[in-house]
Target: Transposase
Amino acid sequence: MALGLQSPWQVDDISFSADESNRKELHLYIGFVRGSRFPDETGTACPVHDKVGREWQHLNFFEHHCFLHCGVPRIKTTDGKVLTVDVPWSRPGSGFTLLFEAFAMALIEREMPVNRVAEILGVNPQRVWAVFNHWIAQARDADDPSSITRLGVDETSSRKGHKYVTLGVDLETARVIHACEGKGKETLKNIQQHLESKGAPKEQITQLSMDLSPAFIAGAAESFPAAAITFDRFHVVKLLNEAMDKVRRVERIEHEELKGHKYTFLRNRQNLSDKQEQSLSEMIELYPNLGKAYRLKVLFNDLWEMPNKAAATTFLTNWCNEVEEAKIPAFMAFSKMVRGHWSGIIHFVESRITNGILEGINSKVQLAKRRARGYRNTGNFINMIYFLCGKLKFSYPLYFT
Model:
C-alpha cells in the first residue's frame, strides 16, 4: 500500500540491515504473481521470457536510505522481440524511483542549490543534475510557444565575467521560451530556428524588444525581418544617466562640493529627500553646465509620454537640436546614439513594450546563480533558467509541491 503497487506487482521480501559503514538501510524486494502476462507496445498481453535484476533508490525510511530491488520481467512479443517491461515506480533508465526524483525536484523548486540537494539526499550531484536535466528536456519537448508574437531578447551571465547566455522571452506570457549560449547575432538565429521548429514562423514575430547591441540589431534584421524593433527604454535611460554622470564628473574635478552627489543628479527628482532636493537646486544654479545638462536629462524623459509617433518625432528632433546648441560633449555623444537608433527608440510610443519583464527574469536568474556560486556547466545553467522562468509543465508526481 505504501508503494502504491497494484497487481500483479507485490512485495516479496523486506530486509533492514547495516552497510559496510554501519549505516542502516531498508531493502524492499518486489516481484510479480507467477504466470503473469504483461502488455507489449500494441497492448497485447505477452508471457514472461526471463528476468533482469534492477535496483532503485527510494525515499528515506525515517533517516535510513531505502532501496527497491526487482527482477524486472522481459517479455517475448508476438513478432519474436524480447522487451523489458516498464515498472510503474520508476522511469526507464533511472536509478531512482519517481517519488525520489519528485522530491529532488521539489527541493530545487524551493530554491535549494543542486549540490545542497545532493548532500541532503546522499547522492552524487551529477546524478541529481541528470534527473533535473531529464525532466527539463521532457517538459521542453512538450512545450508549445507557437502563439508568440511579441519577443523580448536580453543576455545574462552564467558566472561573473564569464560565459553569456541569451534569453528569448514571450512578452505576453512573461516566460523564457528559449535560451542559448553566447550573445551575438547568431543567438537570434538560434531563437528563430527553435520557434520555427515549434510552429512559430519568423514572420509571426511582429514586435521585438531588445537593447542597443549592434549584434542583436544585425541578428534581428536577418532572423525576424517582419518585426518592428523597440529599443528597451531602460537601456536608453541608462545611457542618458551615464551622460549626465560624465558631466558631473568633469565638473567634480574643479569643484569639490560635487563629491558624493552622483545619485542626486541620477535619481528622479520626486525620489529625493528634502536635503537632496535643496542641494540639487543649489548646484544647478551654481554650476550652469550642470544645470543645462540636468535640464536636458529631465526633458528627454518626457519622450516616453508622447501620445503618438508624430509627436515623439517632433519632440525628439527639438531635443537633439537643443543638445547641439548646448554643446555638452557627453550629451552630444548621446544625441548621436539616439539619431543612430531613431526609429527603434520612437517606436516605444506605439508598442509600449520594454524589457522590464526580462529584467525581472534576469534578477531571478542572478539570484539563483549567487546561491549556486556560479554555473560551470552552461547546459545546467540554461536548464535552471527554464525551470525557474519557463513556466513549464512537468509530468513527475506532484505529491511534494
